[in-house]
TrEMBL record:
Pfam families: AceK_kinase (PF06315), AceK_regulatory (PF20423). Belongs to the AceK family. Bifunctional enzyme which can phosphorylate or dephosphorylate isocitrate dehydrogenase (IDH) on a specific serine residue. This is a regulatory mechanism which enables bacteria to bypass the Krebs cycle via the glyoxylate shunt in response to the source of carbon. When bacteria are grown on glucose, IDH is fully active and unphosphorylated, but when grown on acetate or ethanol, the activity of IDH declines drastically concomitant with its phosphorylation. One of its GO terms (cellular component) is cytoplasm. This is Isocitrate dehydrogenase kinase/phosphatase. The active site is at 382. The gene is aceK.
């Protein structure tokens, strides 16, 4: 039932306290995001990483503050349903002319579900779907900036206009040579308009805030000509001396944008008055990118979770296939299942772990939290974490139910929880990740197509050989990027890595990760005698954090073709000295550069070859 009147003073006061709680949250969130500009200008890289990590906790802190206040001042959990129905209506009224209504609705849901019994989780009490539109929201205050700026160049002054576009961000640090950099930018962009008619609407649109992440700032915009829109981004970095800025590359096209905004990268810091306008602009550049992933990329993770769940329920309503055990080698720690028609996997922590695994549920959750808060450098998949998730029982195969009952019975409930006659599968704790092709399956497909057979000269075998080489090279690149992020994956088997649709290798099994700086990298000691040499057992002492890189080979490189490719490109990964050298640099405070684009895209000005930032 919906409220038929608004006569409760308590309901209005509760609604006002909730909107004040949200406004406080977004004010703090935005302030921290805006400070990224100063941290960039002062090259405060540890501060930037610390702020990115700490900002993730802001939302839960504000939800707790607000719910505690409502309980303390209004005994909110004891209010009858008629009052809570009015609370929602008052709250809707307070969102008229709000600049972040979709975020405020999600905040309302978070606070309400923290206070109320689950029987209240229905349309009358929470925002099951958006009530207010986010279209055409604008801040009309005289000093407010628009969400994006438009520039109107001609073919003859585009470089000058592009230069002004960069200067308009007001960075308090000089460029090494902005005229040179914008000439390099035009060297990439101008050929895209060769033999193309310039239409009357020819323009450049650029989002008003720079996108800050780690040691970079990104100008994000699009070129519009007729019905064609070309998305682009300009990474702005420091030179090696960290005295001047320069534009490092031009990223353009939808694929480059998808990689830049990948689910495997850390969240951006962006000063946004109207976040929905930024998401709408970004979706015009990446129409296949789900809105939930864009909100996540902007650091608005709870909104991303909310939108994901809405998309998931919508998909369930419009599909009929069943959840199944996910293809691939089963893990010892996680039970993984998926819905074939839905591009995500669902992961449940098992109740017990066979030897040699020595861990616990809390330790595993701690590892996943570490990854959530860490710089994922494009090599660790982001996860959505949910509690008490309900699925229709009819959509689960009996085989999958038996698997959960066997390995994670403490996490499973099957009941008609809502009393509507429909059985549900309720999982107490679930991680959800983007689905990827497991790397071992990707390589096996290449083997099956003749990629490892040098005698097979068919076109199919050649493509398979290229696939095999790409997978092995990317695997090594992923490990080196993880080293740069101070992450040792622990279990390095191929099955713990996946291939994204853009061909990137991403790590997704976190139960054994450690910081590189916590590991002890050692060479295998020389055998003391022939008996040691012939022994099948380890005859030397091994500490709990000891790592012997030269022993990776037998587990990973049994196939001679794989070994040949790996040794050609990544032989250093089998040397303890390589790992130790990078550990030492991290301990000395060095922050490696890991670029969200190929090295081939980088500008290398003639004066700056030796000034390129350090990277692995």
């Amino acid at each position: 039932m919906f409220a038929t009147r608004l006569d409760s003073t308590a309901a209005y006061e509760i609604a006002k306290a909730m909107i004040n709680g949200f406004n406080r949250h977004y004010r703090l969130f935005r302030t921290e995001s805006a400070r990224a500009k100063h941290r960039f200008e002062t090259a405060d890289w540890p501060g930037q990483q610390r702020a990115q990590r700490e900002r993730i906790e802001f939302y839960d802190m504000r939800v707790r503050e607000c719910s505690n206040r409502l309980q303390r001042e209004f005994k909110a959990g004891e209010q009858p349903m008629e009052i809570w129905q009015q609370v929602k209506l008052h709250y809707i009224g307070l969102l008229v002319d709000h600049y972040q209504p979709e975020l405020a609705e999600t905040f309302f849901n978070s606070v309400t579900t923290k206070i109320l019994h689950r029987s209240y989780f229905e349309n009358s009490f929470i925002f099951f779907r958006p009530v207010l539109s986010t279209e055409y929201i604008e801040n009309s205050a005289p000093d407010a900036l628009p969400s994006y700026r438009a520039y109107y160049p001609t073919l003859y002054n585009m470089r000058e206009v592009m230069q002004q576009t960069v200067l308009d961000f007001g960075l308090h640090c000089e460029f090494e040579d902005l005229k040179r950099d914008t000439a390099l930018v035009m060297g990439v962009i101008a050929p895209l308009f060769d033999h193309v008619k310039i239409h009357a609407n020819f323009q450049i649109q650029v989002l008003t805030s720079l996108f800050y992440r780690n040691k970079g700032a990104y100008l994000v915009g699009k070129l519009i000509n007729g019905f064609i829109e070309l998305p682009f981004a300009l990474p702005i970095l420091y030179n090696k001396a960290e005295t001047h800025l320069r534009i490092d590359a031009v990223l353009h096209g939808e694929v480059d944008m998808h990689v830049l905004f990948s689910f495997a990268r850390a969240y951006f810091m962006v000063d946004m008055d109207i976040p929905s306008a930024y998401v709408q602009f970004l979706r015009s550049m990446m129409p296949r990118k789900p809105r939930n992933e864009l909100y996540n990329a902007l650091g608005l993770g709870k909104q991303g979770k909310n939108l994901f769940y809405r998309d998931f329920l919508y998909h369930l309503r419009h599909s009929s296939d069943q959840f199944r055990i996910a293809p691939g080698i089963k893990g010892m720690v996680m039970l993984v299942f998926d819905l074939p028609s839905f591009p995500y996997v669902f992961k449940v922590i098992k109740d017990f772990y066979p030897p040699p695994k020595e861990t616990s549920r809390e330790q595993i959750k701690g590892k996943y939290l570490l990854v959530k808060q860490h710089d994922r450098v494009g090599r660790m998949a982001d996860t959505l974490e949910y509690s008490a998730v309900a699925f229709p029982r009819s959509r689960f195969t009996d085989e999958l139910i038996a698997e959960i009952e066997k390995f994670a019975p403490s996490q499973l409930e099957i009941s008609d929880r809502d009393g509507n006659g429909q059985l549900e599968v309720i999982l107490k704790h679930v991680y959800i990740e983007r689905r990827m092709i497991p790397l071992n399956i990707y390589l096996q497909d290449a083997f099956d197509a003749g990629g490892a057979d040098p005698a097979n000269t068919s076109a199919k075998a050649q493509r398979a050989r290229e696939q095999l080489e790409h997978g092995v090279i990317e695997y090594g690149n992923a490990l080196k990027d993880l080293i740069a992020a101070n992450i040792f994956p622990g279990d390095m088997l191929w099955k713990n890595f996946g291939i994204t649709r853009h061909g990137k290798v991403v790590f997704y099994d976190y139960d054994e990760i450690e910081y590189i700086t916590d590991c002890v990298f050692r060479k295998v000691p020389k055998a003391r005698n022939e008996e040691d040499e012939m022994s099948g057992e380890v005859w030397y002492t091994v500490g709990p954090k000891d790592v012997f890189p030269e022993t990776f080979g037998p587990f990973l490189l049994g196939n001679p073709v794989v070994r040949e490719v790996f040794m050609k490109h990544h032989a250093d990964l089998l040397e303890a000295a390589f790992w130790q050298k990078n550990k030492d640099r991290i301990l000395q405070g060095h922050l490696f550069d890991v670029f969200p684009y190929d090295q081939s895209k980088r500008f290398i000005p003639s004066i700056a070859t030796s000034e390129m930032p350090d990277s692995i």
